[in-house]
């Protein structure tokens, strides 16, 4: 069993740094951004949405914990909520915990909690080079609803 608990302010500071690093890497790999532009875009992406940190309205920031190691946070789940729909803005299992089934367990617990919150639908985006994430989501009941495309005009 996996536990999802609310992130605290100190954890948010650490998560913000992780998000900026990971998302800037994604922007470089998948959108061809140069390093500094990717970093600026990543900072803007988190700071313009999570303006009040862990208490930002319409957002849920959870730490993922494994009950046998309750002091260890094994991952992060960030949801944006609009009406009866949720969007997985970020889902991250720390590298030492990957490949052990915790991602699927976290998604199951997320779906259980979202049903309690009267959320009817949950969506997400997967980077095109992230085959393991795509497989995880499909294994857990998600299906492809479209393809995001972009073109850099600068």
TrEMBL record:
CDD domains for this protein: NAT_SF
Keyword Transferase found: yes
Keyword Transferase: yes
Domain N-acetyltransferase: 2-154
InterPro entries: Acyl_CoA_acyltransferase, GNAT_dom
Superkingdom of the organism of origin: Bacteria
Annotated keywords: Transferase
Gene Ontology terms, MF aspect: acyltransferase activity, transferring groups other than amino-acyl groups
Name of the protein described by the UniProt record: GNAT family N-acetyltransferase
């Amino acid at each position: 069993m996996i536990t999802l608990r609310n992130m605290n302010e100190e954890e948010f500071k650490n998560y913000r740094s992780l998000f900026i690093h990971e998302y800037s890497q994604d922007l470089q790999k998948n959108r061809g951004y140069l390093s500094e532009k990717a970093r600026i875009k990543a900072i803007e992406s988190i700071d313009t949405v999570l303006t009040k940190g862990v208490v930002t309205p319409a957002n849920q920031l959870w730490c993922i914990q494994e009950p046998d190691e309750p002091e260890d946070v094994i991952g992060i789940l960030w949801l944006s909520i609009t009406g009866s729909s949720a969007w997985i803005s970020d889902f991250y299992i720390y590298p030492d915990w990957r490949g052990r089934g915790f991602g699927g367990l976290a998604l199951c617990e997320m779906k259980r909690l979202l049903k309690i919150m009267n959320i009817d639908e949950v969506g997400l985006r997967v980077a095109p080079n992230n085959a393991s994430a795509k497989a995880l989501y499909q294994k857990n009941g998600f299906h492809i609803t479209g393809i995001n495309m972009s073109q850099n005009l600068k």
